[in-house]
Design a protein that fits this description.
The protein has helices spanning 2-7, 13-45, 50-97, 102-108, 110-152, 154-201, 203-208, 212-237, 240-264, 270-311, 375-380, 405-409, 426-430, 439-448, 452-457, 475-488, 505-518, 531-534, 554-560, 562-578; strands spanning 333-340, 352-359, 364-369, 390-395, 398-399, 412-415, 424-425, 465-466, 493-497, 523-527, 539-544, 547-552. By secondary structure, the chain is an alpha/beta fold. The protein has three domains: 2-311, Up-down Bundle (ABC transporter transmembrane region fold); 324-411 and 493-504 and 523-579, P-loop containing nucleotide triphosphate hydrolases (Rossmann fold, 3-Layer(aba) Sandwich), CATH 3.40.50.300; 420-490, 3-Layer(aba) Sandwich (Rossmann fold), CATH 3.40.50.300. The model is unreliable at 575-579 (pLDDT under 50).
């Protein structure tokens, strides 16, 4: 954890160094006050010397002010250093997450990554902020106060020497058990965030199926699990307070008992006894503060472990040592004996098995098959969202593993199965496809995707706001905006993963016709369930349980593929029934 903090201090190192200096000043000043109070009692009050009392009272007041100012400055520097470190750590984590492949994100889960970059970083921030003050103040108070008490009375100092190790032993014993419980608590927090995230994203589905009660029960269960784990961890921590109080009260009682006797027989002055009690409070407060930081550091250690898991995770997909930076211009795609499985989250069995085919530049290739046949998995291998398990995928004759990832993906346009629009204007969403696109190019892409008319119908047109997740546009509108965004890239390869399922057949036909005019040299991959979406494709790949059943155009498949014939007949019968 300490290494994690030091590695991310950056420009805040000066603040992290300045804070302990000012807390040391506050501590030194605080150590003088009990001794001065003892002098006032023993020499000022008992000697009835008013001038002495006023003089030392002013000195105490000045020291108290210096201590207060030093404490405020320390708090400012420690807050600056801790928050600066946290800010840099969050940015570092976020930037590293951007290099993750789909498989890496599946491994951690989005909910867990959110918890780690927010809650876990905040816990380390708080621990650092407390630690800067306490780790300098507590040892200083403990050592110097103990030294002063020894000067006053070695016998009373022995009481401290017994109490301090006993208190530290209790704290360290608790820490041994708490670390595991904090790790469990963080896992339960991940589960709660996952439940909440899923519910809020799918809130329309929840309400349409009247599943609010079911979701409430799920959330309650996750919340109860987190509560139980938290109570279990905190119940051990709270033991520290009564144990510390018991030891401190016991020490105070012994000091009063023996100290009173020492004052009575003249071994000790009454002011010195008051000073010893003052230093007792400082010693015990320092131990209490140190104990709290140790407990907090146990939780922070668990958080640091989770953060390091992210930072030390080597992305599943990375650039080769000598990548090809050339952008694929022609868009020819070839699969050579490709097999693929989801190694981190799947069942361990191949999703695709021995896939081989070639898509020539400018061809339209459709992929069709039953649910779970591997259609989306197949096209996700082209931009290298996942890596093949066996075989190779080539674009323009070069293995996708040899390309610079940015060069490869910048030449591929995608409208994914799960269409995503970002909060902002329609114009801003379109510029994701091409940041340098002119307004004329944006309008052309919208027209080709049959989205121009409804966009112009919005107040503000291109500058109309899109709410989070595109919740203020329909499914068909969202799909057409995503297609326009992909077309605006002017890609060599365009992948449409079931991206016209919410669009009527007439509109879909117009979109496909626009490809022939606008993307003449682009290789287009279409994944669809409807025969009408694939009937005009140059090649149709029929997948069955992860393998290729057959390849051909519509006419050929109607003669050779039983699966294609069955799909065609079932959809034709559906149409006839609705007529």
């Amino acid at each position: 954890m300490i290494k994690l903090i030091l590695d991310n201090l950056g420009k805040y190192k000066k603040a992290a160094i300045a804070a302990p200096i000012f807390i040391l000043i506050e501590t030194i000043v605080g150590l003088f006050i009990p001794a001065l109070m003892a002098n006032i009692v023993d020499f000022g009050i008992q000697g009835k010397d008013q001038a002495y009392i006023i003089k030392y009272g002013i000195i105490m007041s000045v020291l108290a002010i210096i201590g207060a100012i030093s404490g405020i400055i320390c708090s400012w520097f420690s807050t600056k250093a801790a928050n600066g470190m946290g800010s840099k750590l969050r940015v570092k984590m976020y930037n590293h997450m951007q290099s993750f492949s789909f498989a890496d994100i599946d491994k951690f889960s989005t909910a867990s990554l959110i918890t780690r970059i927010t809650n876990d970083v905040r816990t380390i921030q708080m621990t650092m902020q407390m630690g800067i003050r306490v780790l300098m103040q507590a040892p200083s108070l403990l050592i110097v106060s103990l030294f002063i008490v020894i000067r006053y009375s070695l016998k009373l100092a022995l009481i401290y020497l017994i109490a301090v190790p006993l208190l530290l032993f209790c704290v360290l014993t608790l820490m041994r058990f708490v670390h595991y419980l904090f790790m469990m608590m963080r896992e339960k927090l991940d589960a709660l965030n996952a439940t909440l995230q899923e519910n809020l994203i799918a809130i329309r589905v929840v309400k349409s199926f009247v599943r609010e009660n079911h979701e409430r029960a799920k959330f309650k269960q996750a919340n109860d699990n987190l509560t139980a784990a938290t109570i279990k961890a905190i119940s051990l921590i709270v033991l520290m307070q009564p144990m510390s109080t018991l030891i401190i009260n016991g020490v105070t009682l012994l000091i009063y008992w023996f100290g009173g006797q020492f004052v009575g027989n003249g071994e000790l002055l009454s002011g010195q006894l008051l000073a010893i009690l003052g230093y007792l409070n400082q010693i015990m407060m320092s131990i209490m503060m140190f104990s709290m930081v140790l407990m907090q550091s146990t939780q922070a250690k668990a958080c640091a472990t989770r953060i390091n898991e992210v930072l030390e995770s080597v992305p599943d997909i990375a650039n080769p040592e000598t990548p090809v930076f050339q952008h694929p211009e022609h868009g020819g795609v070839e699969f050579k004996n490709v097999s693929f499985k989801y190694s981190l989250t799947g069942s361990g069995e191949n999703v695709l098995e021995n896939i081989s085919f070639k898509a020539n530049p400018g061809e339209t290739v459709a992929v069709i098959g039953g649910t779970g046949s591997g259609k989306s998995s197949l096209v996700n291998l082209i931009p290298r969202f996942y890596d093949v398990t066996e075989g190779s995928v080539l674009v323009d004759g070069v293995d996708v593993k040899d390309y610079d990832i940015s060069s490869l993906r910048s030449s591929i346009g995608m409208a994914l199965q799960k269409n995503v629009l970002f909060t902002g204007t329609i114009r801003e969403n379109m510029l994701w496809g091409n940041p340098d696109a002119t307004e004329e190019e944006i309008i052309t892409a919208l027209k080709n995707a049959q989205a121009y008319d409804f966009v112009m119908g919005f107040p503000g047109g291109l500058d109309a706001e899109i709410l989070q997740g595109g919740s203020n546009v329909s499914g068909g509108q969202k799909q057409r905006l995503c297609i326009a965004r992909a077309m605006l890239r002017n890609p060599s390869v365009l992948i449409l993963d079931d991206s016209t399922s919410a669009v009527d057949s007439d509109t879909e036909s117009k979109i496909r016709m626009s490809f022939e005019d606008t993307l003449k040299n682009c290789t287009v991959f279409i994944i669809a369930q409807r025969i009408s979406s694939v009937v005009s494709a140059d090649k149709i790949i029929v997948l069955d349980e992860g393998g290729i059943e057959t390849i051909g155009n519509h006419e050929e498949l109607m003669k050779t593929s039983l699966i294609y014939q069955d799909i065609y007949k079932s959809q034709l019968e559906g149409v006839l029934k609705n007529v």
